[in-house]
Amino acid sequence: MKQKKWSVISVTGVILVTLFAILCVAPLIYMVLVSFTDSDSLYIKLSDIKLNFYNYEYAITKRNFGRALWNSIVVTVGSCLLVDIVSSMAAYGFEKKPVPFKEPIFQGYLATMMIPGQVLLIPMFVMVNRFALTNTYSALILPMIGAFGIFLMRQFMVAVPDELLEAAEIDGCGEIRRFITIVLPLVQPALVTLTIFTFNAAWNNFLWPLIVNTKSEMHVLTISMATLSSNYYINYGMVMAGATLTFLFPFTLYIFLQKQFVEGIALGGVKG
Q1: What is the 3-state secondary structure (H, E, C) of 172-226?
Q2: What is the dihedral of CA 236, 242, 247, 253, to 10 degrees?
Q3: Is the pTM here over 0.85, yes or no?
Q4: In whole angstroms, how far apart are CA 98 and each of 51, 93, 94, 95, 103?
């Protein structure tokens, strides 16, 4: 009797999970279908769908989506690398090195996380403009460095045994070699977690690229997406084609790195 009851519960669970999966995937399928239409409405019929890539071709060639895709990839990869390097080195210094007044400095640095990002837009733009970095990749990558990455990495640095570093120093291992060969492998899950958060922030960033870039050739995908619609007419097929192109790169990356993504998010939630 118990076995039959458990079987009913299992079947019900499978049905509910399947329905939930369909609800999650349905908007993506609809987005792709609409991208093959030439419609000013989101309500389409099967007869409206045309199996041609006109919208994609127009978005890439006429609306500069190819250049925007390249800009987004460069900014995202550069941001992930820079944030990982700077955050891990700073966290190592705060946690394992005898830095004078490091605790007050660290606490003050963490306090900057309470400042809304919108408040910093004008000061950041003034600084970028004075250093002549407008319309450059540097202007988009450098502001990604923040207190969150250092805080996250320091949480993991606590678990690195001091005795291990002291033993390596006694054996003649230099500072840089200790950091690269001992510390970084031990905090690799934290680096994966930080990379995921940085990737999402850099890829979906809209307001700062809109402010700091005035040339169309420096637009990222989020800005190019906004240019596909106007106040007077919206071709939803074109908009959905741009949305599909924007979605493809992170989706493809997730397909190949889904194990690392899931582990990084889960570990970041527990440790952070």
Answers
A1: CCCHHHHHHHHHHHHCHHHHHHHHHHHHHHHHCCCHHHHHHCCCHHHCCHHHHHH
A2: 160
A3: no
A4: 64, 8, 8, 8, 11
Amino acid letter for position 171? D
What superfamily in CATH does domain 52-271 come from?
MetI-like (1.10.3720.10)
The neighbour count for residue 91, using CB atoms within 10 Å, is: 25
Question: Per residue of the chain (272 residues), what is the pLDDT tens digit?
Answer: 445 555 667 777 788 888 888 888 888 888 888 888 877 667 777 677 777 788 888 888 888 888 898 999 999 999 999 999 999 999 988 888 887 888 888 888 888 888 888 888 899 999 999 998 899 999 999 999 888 889 888 888 888 888 888 888 888 888 888 888 888 888 888 888 888 889 989 998 988 999 998 888 888 988 888 887 766 677 788 888 888 888 888 888 777 777 766 666 665 554 54
Q: How far apart are CA 54 and CA 224, in angstroms?
A: 17
